[in-house]
Amino acid sequence: MSDASFTVNDSRVPHIPVAAPSDYFALLKPRVMSLVIFTALAGLLMAPVPPHPVIAFASLLAIAVGAGASGALNMWYDADIDAVMTRTRTRPIPAGRLTREEALAFGLVLASMAITTLGLVANWLAAGLLAFTIFFYVVIYTMWLKRSTPMNIVIGGAAGALPPMVGFAAAAGEASLSSFILFSIIFIWTPPHFWALALLKSEDYGRAGVPMLPNVAGPDRTRLEILIYSLILAPVGVAPYALGYASPAYGAISVAFGAVFAALAITTYRRREGEAAKKAARRLFFFSIFYLFALFLVLVVERVLHLAAVIQ
């Protein structure tokens, strides 16, 4: 038999994309993970006696891995939705670089590692809260609420709001009013933040069959809900100062930024047609990111300066 009989016609062999490390990293939803780490750090620093730096670092790493596990499991379950939405169709699974089974296994392994590590290096209350956070995001939000109700992001927002409580529990071994206040800020911030995006991406959500508020109740009702939540958020954002957990500097910044947030929500409510409406929603969406980052940054900086002064 000649060697020619073993020749493969390359043109007939399908190209199979090979997953790169960056694809597994993308499963972790790194932008969401960075927010989780940052807010968990704020909660950890709010504890009366912060833990040893090594324990604090290990705890934050475990929380970060838990957040990444949630992202991977979310992409595993939502692969069908991601495939038809413009902003998500290049993710590793719909793009064909990873299989759903690989994402599921990856997410489950990371979740187990994160929960076990946090329990061993910190305490099992924090580990239990982390496990509940992952469960709530993947099962309650992703599998149930997201596809069944326009209030998905309202109730589901609890998952994204829990990291400060996990961080506080990792440091103190208990929950507290201060960590619940941080939870409340994120919980109330979540609906106007995501509904502003939903106003811009309503066609995407419509194609995917996700019942976001603009697709179910209409854009005008969505703008009203955004305004209501924004007006509630403004005083809640000031609560850390009002209750004595933050300095007057934080109080001034939270009042000013809360007023800007409310003003942008009012503009979004009033501008309902054409490019002006899109511009208003876009400005609110991007400012909402800055708002949350700024408030938690001030809290983190204040607590770090306080600890430095105590150590000296």
TrEMBL record:
Single GO molecular function: protoheme IX farnesyltransferase activity
Q: What topology in the membrane does the UniProt record assign? A: Multi-pass membrane protein
Q: Does the keyword Ligase apply?
A: no
Q: Which PROSITE patterns match?
A: UBIA
UniProt pathway annotation: Porphyrin-containing compound metabolism; heme O biosynthesis; heme O from protoheme: step 1/1
Supply the enzyme class, top level: transferase
Query: Which domain of life does this protein belong to?
Result: Bacteria
**Where do transmembrane segments lie in this chain?**
32-49, 55-77, 98-118, 124-144, 151-171, 177-200, 226-243, 249-269, 281-301
What's its EC?
A: 2.5.1.141
What cellular-component terms does GO give this entry?
A: plasma membrane
Q: Tell me, which GO biological process terms does this entry list?
A: heme O biosynthetic process
One further remark on this entry is: Carbon 2 of the heme B porphyrin ring is defined according to the Fischer nomenclature.
What is this protein's function per UniProt? Converts heme B (protoheme IX) to heme O by substitution of the vinyl group on carbon 2 of heme B porphyrin ring with a hydroxyethyl farnesyl side group.
- Family listed: Belongs to the UbiA prenyltransferase family. Protoheme IX farnesyltransferase subfamily.
Q: Which HAMAP family match?
A: CyoE_CtaB
Task: Give the protein name, as stated in the record.
Answer: Protoheme IX farnesyltransferase
Q: To which species is this protein native? A: Methylocystis heyeri
**Source lineage:** Bacteria, Pseudomonadati, Pseudomonadota, Alphaproteobacteria, Hyphomicrobiales
